[in-house]
Structure formats: structure tokens, C-alpha cells
Design goal:
alpha+beta, binds coenzyme A, Aminopeptidase, 34% strand, 32% helix, eight-stranded mixed beta sheet, 187 residues
Length: 187
């Protein structure tokens, strides 16, 4: 099943990626490549429009078997991505991951988008836990999790190799009951 469209606010929505988004995806990454590559190694200096197309073709191919990756679209233009890189449906466990083109950061777009997807996972996928993992130095990403009321459950030491060095990974999660009880103003 292709992921459903999800409204975020008057100008922003999540919708499935399409192969024809390749130029827009490439543009979104390259509009602040270092901003993304610093934390996500796939966006390094070797990123090309063909790599963008490969990612999009993979999404289209794997949507029928349950892949969850959405384009974040602002005023009709894809400017970021939010997806579920790992899940254990039998245990109700889903992890979300995200990035946003640099010119669109600092407006609350990812906090609102991550809130809507977290809500959707609890409602539509019977999630019991939703997780977010970030390199421990990635303060903006950790701030999204913290703003949404996720709890820092632990730090996996030296668990990711990025740019020639080992990095700690901070793991956050929120449970179904915690999400239901949180203050709505957080999103
Ligand atoms: C991490 C990342 C996705 C955060 O995206 P973002 O849209 O800027 O994050 P938010 O939506 O939470 O924006 C938060 C900022 O917007 C501000 N903001 C403005 N309006 C807001 C609103 N209505 N609601 C919430 N925050 C708002 C907040 O004050 C906050 O600023 P601060 O961090 O300076 O205090 C983005 O920085 C990114 O793509 N980084 C590179 C890739 C990456 O690291 N991905 C994560 C890998 S784990």
C-alpha cells in the first residue's frame, strides 16, 4: 500500500515520492548539501541526480510491500523527506528518520511533520513505541524528538561511522500511552 497523503498545515503536506521528483529531490539536497551530509553520509559529495532517481525508484518499487517514505512538500515543492527506516511490526516498534532542505529549517516544519507521522503510526499501524535515533552531536534533530516529548532512553557508544570517525548515537522513544497523554501544544 502506498503511504497516504497527510496534511501538515495550510502550505505543507506529506505525500508519496515519485520517480519524476528526481530533479526536485536533488535540488533540495544540494540547496544545503553540507547541512545534510554532516549527519547523513548518503548526501556526501558523490550525490547525483541518478542517486536521487535510484532512491525514488526504490520507494515506488517497495511501497506495495509496506515501505514508508514521504516527500515533505511545501507549496507544491518537495523540500525534505520523512520515513520509517526500521520497524518491528510484531512488537509495535517503528523508527522515524528525516531531513529537510536547509532553507526550510527553523520554521517548525519537521516538528509538525514528525508529530503527524507519529500520530499516524500509533493510529493506523498499531504502533506501541515510536523511536528517533540521532548522532549525539546532532542538536537540531534531538531537539525535534525532545520537543515532541520523546524520552532519551540511552546512548549507544561509537555505534555509527561517519566522516572518518566513530560517533555515539542518542536513542529516543515515546510509547503509545505517553503519546496519548502528552500536551497537545507540543506539536
Ligand atoms: C534536524 C532537522 C530535520 C530539523 O528540521 P527543522 O524543520 O529545522 O526542525 P523544527 O521543525 O523542529 O524547527 C525547530 C526550530 O524552528 C523554530 N520554530 C519556528 N516556528 C516553529 C513552530 N511553529 N513550531 C516549532 N518550532 C518552530 C524553533 O524555535 C526551532 O528553533 P531552534 O532549534 O533554533 O530553537 C533539520 O535541521 C535537518 O534536516 N538537518 C539535517 C539532516 C539531519 O540531521 N536529519 C536528522 C538525522 S537524525
Amino acid at each position: 500500500m502506498t503511504p497516504p497523503g497527510l496534511a501538515i498545515d495550510a502550505t505543507t503536506r506529506l505525500r508519496p515520492w515519485r520517480v519524476e521528483d528526481a530533479p526536485a529531490l536533488y535540488e533540495a539536497v544540494m540547496s544545503g548539501q553540507e547541512h545534510i551530509a554532516r549527519w547523513m553520509s548518503w548526501a556526501d559529495g558523490t550525490y547525483t541526480i541518478d542517486r536521487a532517481r535510484d532512491f525514488l525508484a526504490g520507494c515506488e518499487r517497495e511501497y506495495p510491500s509496506g515501505r514508508l517514505d514521504w516527500a515533505i512538500e511545501v507549496e507544491g515543492v518537495p523540500v525534505g523527506s520523512l520515513g520509517v527506516p526500521r520497524s518491528e511490526p510484531a512488537h509495535g516498534e517503528y523508527e522515524i528518520g528525516y531531513w529537510l532542505a536547509e532553507p526550510y529549517t527553523g520554521r517548525g516544519i519537521m516538528t509538525r511533520s514528525a508529530a503527524v507521522v507519529t500520530d499516524w503510526l500509533f493510529d493506523q499501524k498499531s504502533a506501541h513505541r515510536v523511536q528517533i535515533a540521532a548522532l549525539s552531536g546532532n542538536t537540531p534533530s534531538r531537539a525535534v524528538a525532545e520537543r515532541l516529548g520523546f524520552t532519551l532512553e540511552g546512548v549507544f557508544r561509537q555505534s555509527r561511522f561517519n566522516r572518518g570517525a566513530w560517533h555515539d548515537m542518542a536513542w529516543y522513544a515515546i510509547t503509545e500511552d505517553e503519546w496519548a497523554a502528552r500536551e497537545p501544544s507540543r506539536a
